[in-house]
Amino acid sequence: MKKPVEIAVTGAAGQISYSLLFRLASGEAFGFDQPVILRLLEVTPALPRLEAVIMEINDCAYPLLQTIITTDDPKVAFDNVDYVFLVGAKPRGAGMKRKDLLESNAKIFSEQGKALNEVAKRSVKVLITGNPANTNALITQRNAPDLDPKCFSAMSMLDHNRGIGQLAEKCHVRSEDVKNMIVWGNHSETQYPDLNHATVEGKSALSLVDEDWIINTFIPTVQHRGGQVIEARNGFSSAASAASAAICQMRSWIVGTEINDWSQWISMGIFSDGSYGIEKGLFYSFPVTVSPQGEVNIVQGLEISDFSRKKMQATEQELKEERATIEHLL
After folding, report:
1. pTM, rounded to two decimals
2. What whole-number distance in Å separates Cα of residue 155 and Cα of residue 40?
3. Which residues are catalytic?
4. Are 272 and 48 spatial neighbours (Cβ–Cβ below 8 Å)?
5. pLDDT tens string 36-71
6. Gyration radius of the chain over CA positions
7. Which residues contact 118 (CB under 8 A, 6 or more apart)?
8. DSSP string computed for 65-107
């Protein structure tokens, strides 16, 4: 049997984690021959609720699950871990300004960054899901200066999958027939879902859908999908699809994108190296390929239209504004 990998999940009693933990324990993310140890972090008042989740996990009798560790101490949760899902974040409440939300979460993610810096493996992979994910990734990374910035990624796979789903539905094909969708920028309503390089069954997506649908239906639907789900679910967020996207992104990060299709790329929020004129150091969603060794590379040389450039710069500007809001806490 392989040596177990240790996986930390924050906000472990929350809705996204409820959809995530069972799939991690089953082997879906790391392989059906890979034993796992779960390290689950929650705030102290939520620990009793987390115990109920653990009862259910134990009742599933997953053969790959070796141990579950629960704690309210991030240093315990992140001790020597291989992979981390930073799911827990303070949600935006009624009347709360975005600045207030950013500052509240900055305190949470700065503490977690410091703990990762102190006790996690130097090869750790940290996926930030809790919103605002890109800026929370920046906060975490800046508070973990001894870890390579490449250890951190903000989730944009949810937006990527949403785009694929919308295009597949429009073209009456399966999602696997859609290749090279791109999401640029922030995991927010300024993100830019880009079909200029996408294909459907090998054909250019632009040859199958009209410009009006792209501008007035596709882009706003992907941008506002989270709000649409919350409204349709009477206040509950898109927890299951977010958990699924987290697994997709982490698995691609581990095994690579080449395993499925040499021509396929995915979207990941990563530390910008200045590609496509995006400011270095922001966590920005780019189209990437991942090697079987887990090396992430931005797809280079893509032609960018004037329309796309404006959209890419708008979401970059939002990320700069978010950073400025919490600059004093970095």
Report:
1. 0.94
2. 19
3. 187
4. no
5. 999 999 999 999 999 999 999 999 999 999 999 999
6. 19
7. 75
8. EEEEEEES-HHHHTTT-SEEEE---PPPPTT--HHHHHHHHHH
